[in-house]
Amino acid sequence: MHDAMEQYWVWLSSVEGIGPKRFYQLLSEFEDPRAVWDACLMGMTKSLGAKTNAKLKAACTRSYFEDLFEGLDRQGITAVPRISDCYSRLLSETTDAPPVLYVKGNADLNCERPFSIVGTRTPTRDGKRAAGEFAERLALSGAVVISGMARGIDTCAHEGALKGGGRTIAVLGCGADVVYPPENADLYERILDKGGSIVSEYRPGTQPLAQNFPARNRIISGMSVGVLLVEGDMKSGGMITAGYAADQGRDLFAVPGSIYSLLSRAPDHLLTQGAVPAVSEWDIPEYYRWAARPSKAPGKRTAVELDDVERRLVEPLRSQEMTANELSVETGIPIAQVNPVLTMLELRGIIVKMPGGYKAAVQDI
């Protein structure tokens, strides 16, 4: 439910041609959106220009006002104005916060421990794994994972948060009722089913135009206490988000990568500029004291007994995921021998099967 002033914030923001910049210009001229409504009725908004003024005048009717909120209700979308208690306090403190956010799902955006994970749309296998594991650990530490639901790292971050049983927030570059990319339709629904939120500053029905995405990145960082960049090149959207984060005074973290990989250039550059290295899924929860990694008691270490073939297969899985065929090539062990050994190792809990192959579940071997 909105109070009267919140309704006028939503109304003014909904008018075509009234973007954030013009919205705040009007507030500086007329004090609040209700005063803009009154000025419009009296023909005192001609400074907007003929085209925008005509659209404002057409929207300055009781029928438009009522249809606006009835339409949002039918679509299951909540409009959260900046003056609402549900609006992110962190985002509200930034200089270019959207006047209104449109939300599907949980409309309370003042969540505890909000943290963002971003990166390239074309990640490596290790990048996918890192995004998922960092997000899962953050969720298990009580954090809310925020990302953009784009292909690649964003998707892995949301998936990891859901795996950890946590809430996750997707900030879109289109309307909150538009699923983009379309292959994430199932993820979109699971985010909502698990108490998460789909957020956008764009009006319902807005299509995913290229120019929308850089602007939405300021919301991802603005809602968060910190941002982790997993992979990306120097011109990636992740670097745009990192730039906003720096301007907004947010903590910056980066996963180090190979100096020979194009996708490591952005995170490695951030590290040279003072970003906090993230080399373990526990690094971020420990940084904020949200959780502490379990310590091994002296004398409690349990040895895992492996024969020579098992050890040769498990060793490379300690650092990366690999398929059975890749392991066969790496170790020189025939594939016919590799498959049954992997099956036994999985049954013993020494390795686990992942979407991209196998990885070691036990590091101390």
Architecture overview:
The protein is of the alpha/beta class. It has three domains: 74 residues, no CATH class; 174 residues, Rossmann fold (3-Layer(aba) Sandwich); 53 residues, Arc Repressor Mutant, subunit A, CATH 1.10.10. It is built from 16 helices and eleven strands. A nine-stranded mixed beta sheet has the order 1-2-6-5-4-3-7-8-9, sandwiched between helices. Strands 10-11 form a two-stranded antiparallel ribbon. Helix 1 crosses helix 3 and helix 10 packs across helix 11. The termini are far apart.
Tally of DSSP β-strands: 11
Secondary-structure class = alpha/beta
- Spatial strand order of the main sheet: 1-2-6-5-4-3-7-8-9
Percent in helix = 40-55%
What number is the mean pLDDT? 92
Query: At the third CATH level, what is the topology name of the largest domain?
Result: Rossmann fold
CATH class of the largest domain: Alpha Beta
| Number of domains as seen in the coordinates | 3
Principal-axis shape equals elongated
Q: Helix-strand pattern, N to C?
A: HHHHHEHEEHEHEHEHEHEHEHHHHEE
Strand content: 5-15%
Largest sheet: 9 strands, mixed
CATH architecture of the largest domain: 3-Layer(aba) Sandwich
Distance between the termini: 57 Å
Radius of gyration: 24 Å
Total helical segments: 16
